[in-house]
Design the sequence.
């Protein structure tokens, strides 16, 4: 059953964090802080308030948030939402060649930027993700760190919509 904003506004902090603590890839501190900004008008308002918290984070905290995300196409243990998102574009069923390509790009990217490549996979294909991967490798570190945060906020919006039963 999808949540309503009224139910969310009446939640205890513990319940709120349990439900929303993984919206920003297992970074429950964002949900903990967001709870203090109730009441929320709607999902967009909740998202905006969570994004404002991310925006106000220190550079070090933002980097930790970025590093909390898994590599795309990885076979490591990751959050349920990440599994579902990656599965939606077939990253859970990569051929050996595709897996090698993603693994190589992940490695090259992390060597250059010292954090994982992040993209909101919703509305992407394996091909468009690979194109974005290769394109963003030409970015400087600061530009790509900013792009990673933008992508994270998109991912959070999709995850919030899912919690509320809203189609993206």
Sequence:
């Amino acid at each position: 059953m999808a949540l309503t904003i009224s139910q969310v506004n009446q939640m205890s902090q513990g319940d709120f964090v349990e439900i929303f603590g993984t919206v920003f890839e297992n970074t429950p501190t964002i949900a903990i802080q967001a709870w203090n900004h109730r009441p929320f008008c709607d999902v967009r308002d909740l998202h905006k308030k969570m994004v404002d918290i991310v925006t106000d984070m220190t550079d070090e905290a933002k980097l930790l948030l970025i590093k909390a995300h898994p590599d795309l196409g990885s076979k490591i243990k990751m959050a349920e939402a990440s599994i579902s998102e990656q599965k939606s574009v077939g990253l859970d069923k990569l051929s050996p060649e595709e897996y090698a390509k993603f693994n190589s790009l992940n490695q090259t990217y992390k060597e250059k930027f010292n954090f994982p490549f992040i993209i909101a996979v919703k509305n992407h294909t394996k091909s468009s993700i690979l194109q974005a991967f290769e394109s963003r490798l030409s970015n400087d570190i600061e530009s790509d760190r900013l792009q990673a945060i933008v992508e994270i906020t998109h991912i959070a919006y999709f995850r919030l919509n899912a919690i509320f039963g809203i189609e993206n």
Q: What stands out?
A: The mean pLDDT is 88.
